[in-house]
Amino acid sequence: MLSLSRSGYDEILSHADAGGEEEVCGVLAGERCEDGTARVDAVHRAENVADQPRTRYRIDPEAQLAIIERIEAAGRSVVGFYHSHPTGPPVPSETDAERAAWPGYSYAICLPGDRPYLGSWRWTGERFEREAVALR
């Protein structure tokens, strides 16, 4: 399960809305609980540096490392990542699966707009498995 504060949920959707027709992305920070829950306490926006930002996302490796260092300096852990699909679908794409690199971590996908949506999947190393999203 991915457990988000209301403010974290709102931050992700606000970022997605601000991205317009381009995908946005970021890193989810918090703790990984013994029961398998990824508890998100902070959302870190990242710049999408993909060549095709309307249909792809990519975090610059140096920027990602800097975000991870900030997360760890704050006593938190990386628990996952998020990105938007401005034109859908509300599930991981083939490209998302090809580029997923963190087995056991959450990958949240959001759809911005009048009827926002946020879903999450755990990457097994071979495929995505849907996980519940809970607001707290």
TrEMBL record:
Gene3D superfamilies: Cytidine Deaminase, domain 2. PROSITE patterns: MPN (PS50249). Keywords: Hydrolase, Metal-binding, Metalloprotease, Protease, Zinc. PANTHER family: CYSO-CYSTEINE PEPTIDASE. This is Mov34/MPN/PAD-1 family protein. InterPro entries: JAB_dom_prok, JAMM/MPN+_dom, Metalloprotease_DSAMP, MPN, VirAsm_ModProt. It comes from the Archaea. One of its GO terms (biological process) is proteolysis. SUPFAM superfamilies: JAB1/MPN domain. Residues 2-127 form the MPN domain. Pfam families: Prok-JAB. One of its GO terms (molecular function) is metalloexopeptidase activity.
